[in-house]
Amino acid sequence: MRPTAPRHALPAAHGADTGDAASPSVLLFSGFGASGPGHVRQLQELYRRPSYRPLLEAASDAVDRAVHRFGEPGVQHLLPGGIPLRAWLRAATPPPAAALRLSAVEGVLTHLSHLCLLQPDEGAAAAAHRAAPTVGPATGPVVGLGHSLGLISAVVAGLRREGGQQFLRDAHESMTMTVLTLLRCQEAAGDQRPDPALARRYGELGGGRDRPGPMAAVSGVDVATVRDLVAEHHAGGGQPVEVGLVNGPRDAVLCGSPTGLLELWSRQQGTLAGAGASWAFLNSSVPFHNSRLAPVLDHLAADREWAKASISGERLAAPVYATDEPRNLQQVTDLYTDCLSQVICRPLDWTATLRSVMAEHRPSRVYDFGPGVAVRMFTRKYLEQRGHALEYVSVRSPPAR
Fold first, then answer.
1. Which of 343, 349, 383, 385 is nearest to 365 (CA)?
2. Which residues, other chains included, contact 209 with Cβ-Cβ below 8 Å and sequence gap of 6+?
3. What residue ranges of the chain have pLDDT lower than 50?
4. Model pTM?
5. What would the pLDDT profile of 196-251 be if each residue is shown by its tens digit?
6. Is residue 12 located within the same domain as residue 133?
7. How far is residue 380's CA from residue 366's CA, in Å, rounded to a whole number?
8. How many domains does the chain have?
9. Could you list the residue range(s) of the whole structural domain that residue 133 is in?
10. Which residue from 158, 190, 347, 384 lies 20 to 30 Å from 365 (Cα-Cα)?
11. Packing angle, helices 53-70 and 103-118, rounded to 10
């Protein structure tokens, strides 16, 4: 059974002048990997607690503001029913099952869950939490690490707080930009319906229940082999497909149109089966980490100016690591553009990121903010294969008192 950390026991982001020589802890954030009614019910339960109400109201305001900026008709076209977050939190309107399968909705709920876990304890909430057992130091150096969309949450976790209301302002800003990012990406993804004949063939021969989409995980074969298969696919005239994520030496995610991915699977299924590889479409409606989404960044630059976004690398009090190539985002000149490009259109190399973090910081503990389990699994598997035995602690909201 994994230990679980109450929020007050977490190490805090620190400045370079702390002089703390303790082994740092990693704050790990998944981008996707958990959705559905259960996720919504957890947020509804938090909304009923007075200590979380200001944050969740600020997040709801941010969603409404982003929807207004994007245009309500456009949102309704992409997401039938829209994103009425406040109504969902109040349990006044249950989210449609179809909406919960869309990346834009899943991403909003995931980021909101992270913000709830990061909220500084105040007043009655702090008093209630003091009695809970701790599993780690109350303070200490940290390193922020976010997988895909989780990078935005890692940045928020690493920010230096400047005043009692600063967290709410940061949460409002990050939620506004996250919603706009997801909506712009969903719009740019276009029609994600696959070729009917290829989809039917996959259903008959694929052996799985996954529905074809714009991202597919290929496991059990070297990433170099996957890249070779993609090159052969393109040489044969297949629709564009990219290796979007490298989660491990034998774990990759391909991104492209559902038809392009089905073409590749159809042509290479014999090779994949012979190599003992598995193929599974992910529950995604957007091909994240795909270079074809790069034009979205121009729209987001205008959105950022409209939102008067102020979060910058200068405010990062803790290292937060990029995932396209090993580097500390404290050192970048334009944090927003860099961070969003990694989420949207840059390839993710998780193994290179982990190697860099271990070499530079040698952490001893990972605080896993979830909500999915896949990122922790990839992280633990890769590090243990290289002799790094870290402690993994699941961070969840404390139960109501």
1. 383
2. none
3. 1-3, 6-8, 14-20, 122-139
4. 0.90
5. 999 999 999 877 778 999 999 999 999 999 999 999 999 999 999 999 999 999 99
6. yes
7. 9
8. 2
9. 4-189+293-395
10. 347
11. 150
